[in-house]
Amino acid sequence: MNIPLDSRSEISEISVMTEIAEKSEALPVAVRQFVLHWGEMGGQWGVNRSVAQIHALLYLSDRPLNADEIGEKLGIARSNISNSLKELLGWKLIRRVPVMGDRREHFEAEVDLWQMLTRIAQGRKEREVDPAVAALKQCRAEAQDDPRISRTARERIEAMHDFVTTMDDWHREMITIPPARLMLLIKMGRKVLNFLPLGRGKVKPDV
């Protein structure tokens, strides 16, 4: 019987997920659920599922793990683990650590949540935002010199360019603020509006 390619892909993915779930039975329930859920979220963000699961496992581990241990706990092929670890190292979400008496490479995750969030945001910016900024800059330049472009199209390209570059500049400024001060700013929430000229008196006080 011929199975459509899309169906084969779905069957393969379900098979992999079932294998992971079965081989991770030795993990505590909460850890297993966290790893599987983190993998699902990674897939939605465009991150390989195995990469996200390995990151989750290392994040919750109370000691560094080597590739064999990761494969045993998650049921992931060694070649997949190797590629996933390289990607996580590239994102600076994990690091190599030496273990006394063991020549194998061991890995541990960055556990500082602010550092982890900053590195994920920076990685996504480099992959997604920076190319968009460059493309919009080129579109803006070409639109200005092309008489065939309508005024409406030119204005909207300009508006999009200004918005994206403003957000890019905001991101650059935010990552220079010390984490403690930035967290305080976040916790203040809408109260920050009261410090702005147009915000003072415009926000209802918290009850």
Label this structure with key terms.
mainly alpha; 8 helices; single chain; 207 residues; three-stranded antiparallel beta sheet
Structural overview:
- By secondary structure, the chain is mostly helical.
- The chain contains eight helices and three strands, in the order αααβααββααα.
- The protein has a three-stranded antiparallel sheet.
- A hairpin with a 2-residue loop joins β2 and β3.
- α6 (113-144) packs antiparallel against α7.
- Mean pLDDT is 82; it is low at 5-18.
Secondary structure blueprint with pairings:
Blueprint: H1 5-23, H2 29-44, H3 49-60, E1 65-66, H4 67-74, H5 78-91, E2 94-99, E3 102-109, H6 113-144, H7 151-174, H8 179-188
Antiparallel strand pairs: 1-3, 2-3
- DSSP strand tally: 3
Number of DSSP helical runs: 8
Helix content: 55-70%
Distance between the termini: 66 Å
Strand content: 5-15%
Shape: elongated
The chain-level mean pLDDT equals: 82
Structural category: mainly alpha
Q: Flag low-confidence runs.
A: 5-18
User: Major sheet, described briefly?
Assistant: 3 strands, antiparallel
SSE pattern, N- to C-terminal: HHHEHHEEHHH
Order of strands, main sheet, comes to 1-3-2
The whole-angstrom Rg is 23 Å
- What does the oligomeric state look like here? single chain
